[in-house]
């Protein structure tokens, strides 16, 4: 395993001269572009690929909301360096910079940029704070292994200010906080009241395969039902493009249905894990970003429990 210390040694200051590195990778620079999606709402849209040394883990959507005294950041990206880029970007939109930070859930690509905003409130559901504290170091080891020097200097900085469900105001902006779960043990969705934009976090993926390391698929489907019933003006998913059509929620739900069904049928037919991983994907799901890696990861996360549940009882 490559630890944080090893990752620092691997590239050192010589990255720019190593052959085979892309320009961005050699400079370890995130090129973030704010995309205006509604009045006072900007999206920084991540790649729909898996974590790579080329994208530096910039695979997540972050959101900037105009507040009274600065910008409210929803999710801070995968690394210290990403958080710094986000901070610089915020200042180009509002000279006062970032006033508040909100984390939708405890996955590392959503909160490892928090370190940069340690002077501001960093809000999350209470369960998310506990999960980030409990699992953050394990996630960090994995992220350093996947992204090497992109992670340089990143220290796990869990959110610390509890946010409750319901209608609330953050830095003057009226929001409805939806405390849900299923993608993880605690997933926050946020409805921006003035624009009707639903910031769905990783409860919704669009044209990018959902990730399932912490998932409860039945609970996740229930949360998607809650989100669909809101009839938002547009859904801003955790990964993938903005969706004004409602397709993103339907697509995520259809994929999770198919995944659960595929795992159950495979277990009933006695397939082993490797055979399931090699199953062909239907065209509409094979075309999603990060496939077939995410399907294969889902098999490794979920199949052992599914196998147990279909074993004949009474032995
Ligand atoms: Zn996630």
Explained architecture:
Residues 1-24 form the signal peptide. This is Quinoprotein relay system zinc metallohydrolase 1. Pfam families: Lactamase_B. Residues 59-239 form the Metallo-beta-lactamase domain. The protein is α/β, with parallel strands linked by helices and 315 residues long. It is built from ten helices and twelve strands. The strands form two sheets. A seven-stranded mixed sheet has the order 1-2-3-4-5-6-7. A five-stranded mixed sheet has the order 8-9-10-11-12. The model is unreliable at 1-19 (pLDDT under 50). Bound molecules: zinc ion. Zinc ion binds at residues 105, 107, 183, 202, 211.
Could you say which small molecules are bound to this protein? Answer: zinc ion
> How is the biggest beta sheet arranged?
7 strands, mixed
Radius of gyration: 20 Å
- What is the domain total for the residues? 1
Oligomer: single chain
Task: Walk me through the topology.
Blueprint: H1 4-11, H2 23-27, E1 34-38, E2 41-44, E3 62-66, E4 71-74, H3 80-93, E5 98-102, H4 108-111, E6 122-124, H5 126-147, E7 161-162, E8 166-170, E9 173-180, E10 187-192, E11 197-205, H6 217-229, E12 234-239, H7 247-268, H8 273-277, H9 283-286, H10 293-310
Parallel strand pairs: 4-5, 5-6, 6-7, 11-12
Antiparallel strand pairs: 1-2, 2-3, 3-4, 8-9, 9-10, 10-11
The structure holds zinc ion.
Pfam family, one: Lactamase_B
InterPro entries: Metallo-B-lactamas, NDM-1-like, RibonucZ/Hydroxyglut_hydro, SoxH-rel_PQQ_1
Keywords: Signal
Condensed summary:
This protein has 10 helices and 12 strands.
């Amino acid at each position: 395993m490559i630890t944080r210390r090893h990752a620092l040694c691997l590239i050192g200051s010589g990255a720019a001269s190593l052959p085979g590195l892309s320009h961005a990778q050699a400079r370890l620079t995130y090129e973030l572009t704010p995309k205006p999606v509604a009045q006072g709402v900007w999206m920084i849209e991540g790649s729909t690929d898996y974590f790579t040394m080329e994208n530096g883990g910039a695979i997540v959507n972050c959101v900037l909301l105009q507040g009274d005294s600065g910008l409210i950041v929803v999710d801070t990206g995968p690394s210290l360096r990403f958080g710094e880029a986000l901070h610089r970007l915020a200042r180009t939109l509002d000279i006062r910079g970032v006033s508040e930070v909100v984390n939708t859930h405890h996955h590392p690509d959503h909160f490892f940029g928090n370190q940069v905003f340690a002077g501001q409130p960093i809000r999350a559901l209470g369960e998310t704070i506990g999960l980030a504290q409990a699992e953050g170091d394990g996630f960090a080891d994995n992220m350093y292994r996947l992204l090497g020097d992109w992670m340089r200097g990143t220290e796990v900085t869990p959110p610390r200010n509890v946010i409750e469900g319901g209608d609330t105001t953050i830095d003057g902006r009226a929001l409805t906080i939806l405390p849900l779960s299923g993608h993880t043990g605690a997933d926050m969705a946020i409805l921006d009241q003035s624009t009707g934009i639903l910031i769905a976090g990783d409860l919704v993926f669009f044209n990018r395969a959902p990730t399932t390391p912490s998932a409860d698929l039945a609970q996740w489907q229930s949360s998607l039902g809650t989100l669909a019933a809101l009839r938002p003006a547009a859904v801003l998913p955790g990964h993938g493009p903005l969706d004004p059509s409602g397709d993103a929620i339907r697509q995520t739900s259809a994929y999770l249905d198919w995944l659960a069904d595929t795992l159950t049928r495979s277990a009933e037919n006695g397939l082993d894990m490797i055979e399931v991983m090699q199953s062909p994907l239907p065209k509409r799901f094979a075309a999603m970003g990060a496939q077939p890696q995410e399907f294969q990861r889902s098999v490794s996360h979920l199949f052992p429990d599914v196998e147990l549940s279909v074993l004949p009882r009474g032995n």
